[in-house]
Amino acid sequence: MSERQLTHVQLEGSMVPVVADCDVVVIGAGPAGHSAAVSAARNGSSVTLLERYHHLGGMASGGMVLVLDDMVNEGNEIVTTGLVDEFVERLEKQDAAVYPPREECQTNWEMWQKWSRWGCIDFHKAMMPQPIIHAVAFDPDAWKRVSLDMVREAKVNLRTHSWFSDVLMEGGKITGVIAQTKMGRQAIRAKIVVDATGDLDVGVAAGADYTDGQFIVTTVFRLCDVDTKKAIEFEFSHPEEYKKIDRQARRVIGGAWGMWWLKTPLPGVVWCNCPHMPGYDGLTPEHMVAAEYEGRERMMNLLAYARENVPGFENAKMLGAAEQMGIRQTRLLQGEYVVTKDDVSSRRYFQDTVCRGRDYYTPYRSLLPKGIDNLIVAGRHYSVDSDAQKLSREIPPCMSQGEAAGVAATLALEGDIALRQVDHKDIQKRMRAQGADPGDAPSANALIEPAVAAE
Ligand SMILES: Cc1cc2nc3c(=O)[nH]c(=O)nc-3n(C[C@H](O)[C@H](O)[C@H](O)COP(=O)(O)OP(=O)(O)OC[C@H]3O[C@@H](n4cnc5c(N)ncnc54)[C@H](O)[C@@H]3O)c2cc1C
Asked: Whole-angstrom Cα distance, residue 9 to residue 274?
């Protein structure tokens, strides 16, 4: 039903308690928001981090998206460093991250057999075997633990179970945000606001320009009691038979990328980044209910098929679906600069690049809305067109955006200036100083327009 067909009720205004007063409030503790909060706090800002759920991590934990992609470019340089590196190191210490050693990042069948089922492949390459690359398979619960550790160590004021619902504004500035909680509405006052909701919730409430994006949604799930060794041996010893079974499995689930199951750091547990369900709007409750019904039915159908037909899956059981619906794209900011598909695919370098992923560069302007002085975004809803977002929304680059946004917020506070007045060179310098790659030194294959080169 459309907004216009609904009847409406008028809500009375009410007094709302102020529960925090800080330099920076970050809304959303997914990969981007977590990085933004930690980065701003480590740079000296007082930070409040608001999250609607009990856990931190967004799609990387609650959404059970379990491989970090877009960390290397075609030249095999690692392009997402800083907080991404630190996060992976912390996961590794908990035996919760697996990735190929650099010397095994090769293109041959031996390495393919060893690493492809970890998802450490360059899935952009239309060739077989695809190159093995630096990508990281991880455990979602460890992601939550590491996120909490880092937030606590950085002395971020964490407020979970707090659903952002509105902004307080004076002129073109946001003076605070309102969160809905079990205790009623609560206000957080802040000088700078980082929208890391993935859906531009804050930006929309503040009147930022945006476009409605949409992409397939997925109820990601995990199976346990899988004999992965047997499954892989069968795949390689009976390739034709395997292909037939696999094709049917993908038909049963109704849409999956090349591999419908991947290994995880937990023995016998595989994650299934499927089904692909088009036509759902990730913001509309009625759509999400329908997607939940459809996704759960499909995953049980796949389990039944796999138990009957896929060697290694005879005893497989449903470990569970992700807590959060897998939403890839909804509203996208249309800010100071809108990154296009051509920018991403031509590897266009911008003078004000503050972070990057694979072979794409993210200009500082694409984190800034037009007309709102103290709001910055980080994450999958940055200022980008729908097709470009599909190619530039992976977890590590979203974390790097967050790290850059946290730095920018602090620089704005230090200089007592608007976010758009912060010099991108200062952000780049600070990012480098904290071990992050701001993408200011373009790779050899970058497209550098003459005007940019001359600047
Ligand atoms: C099914 C699927 C498969 C994917 N596969 C991969 C992959 O293999 N590798 C990869 O690197 N990337 C993958 N991605 C992309 C990646 O997961 C996301 O683009 C990335 O997580 C975006 O990070 P984010 O922080 O911007 O948003 P999110 O991860 O969506 O985090 C947003 C956070 O904000 C919180 N929030 C939202 N609204 C509010 C509110 N109003 N109040 C308070 N809190 C709020 C949410 O609860 C959440 O914690 C996949 C995505 C999906 C959906």
From this structure: 39
- In sign, the C-alpha dihedral spanning 243, 252, 301, 294 is positive
Q: How many helices (H) and strands (E) does the chain have?
A: 13, 20
The pLDDT assigned to 362 comes to 98
Burial of 143 (0-12, 13-18, 19+ CB in 10 A): buried
Q: Render pLDDT for 257-278 as a digit per residue (tens, 0 to 9).
A: 889 999 999 999 999 999 999 9
pLDDT of residue 172: 85
Q: 283 CA distance to ligand 1 centroid (A)?
A: 13
Per-residue pLDDT reduced to its tens digit, 215-246:
999 999 999 999 999 999 999 999 999 999 99
Strand partners, 184: 181
Alpha-carbon dihedral 351, 174, 39, 45, rounded to 10 degrees? 120
Find the residues whose C-beta lies inside 6 A of ligand 1: 27-33, 50-53, 58-60, 63, 65, 67-69, 163-164, 196-199, 201, 218, 220, 273, 326-328, 379-380, 393-395, 398
How many other C-beta atoms are found inside a 10 Å radius of the C-beta of residue 137? 22
Strands 163-170 and 157-159: unpaired
Least confident of 58-67, 111-120, 302-311, 446-455: 446-455
Q: How many CA atoms lie within 13 A of 211 on its CB side?
A: 13
How far are the Cα atoms of 70, 235, 310, 417 from residue 409, in angstroms, in the given order? Answer: 25, 50, 51, 10
Angle between helix 424-433 and 395-415 (nearest 10): 120
Phi first, then psi: what are they for 428, rounded to 5°? -55, -45
Question: The tokens of 392 are what?
Answer: 């530039």
Q: What is the pTM of this model?
A: 0.97
Distance 31 CA to ligand 1 centre (A): 7
- The DSSP output letter for 370 is S
Q: Which of 37, 236, 261 is nearest to 154 (CA)?
A: 37
Q: Which atom of ligand 1 is nearest to the CA of 34?
A: 25
Residue 337 predicted with pLDDT over 60: yes
> Sign of the C-alpha dihedral, residues 307, 60, 143, 82?
positive
When pLDDT is cut at 50, 70 and 90, the band that residue 116 belongs to is very high
